[in-house]
Amino acid sequence: MARVAGRMGRIYLAQTTTGQAEPMVAQAKWSINQTSSKQDVTALGDTTKQYVADTPDATGTFEGFFDDAADSTYKAAVDGLPRRFYLYPNVNTPTVYWYGQILPDLTIAGGVGTAVTVSSSWSAASSIVKQG
Q1: Whole-model pTM?
Q2: How confident is the model at residue 1 (pLDDT cuts 50, 70, 90)?
Q3: What total of structural domains would you count in the chain?
């Protein structure tokens, strides 16, 4: 796989819990964090601490600009129900993406001399799987 520019990324989010994921409009940034908690298994006689990985976690963010015709993140944030989610680093390489269900939170901010922005931090509501 080649290096890619972030400008070709796309985020898809379902409008409802049972709906199909649709491209989000006016998004400018995204991130995904996949970590595992570690359990200390250091035993007597070990020369360094030792750990084993526990359950993996997936969280992330996306940011963009407010569009009053597109409110899928708002709906998902206020009803607290999971949504289908797809994250493509490059839509020109549609075989590489992450997918699953997420629970997004929402922040909308604006002010004098700035565009109104929308940002979301999300947590996994199902396994978040990387395809490709």
Answers
A1: 0.86
A2: low
A3: 1
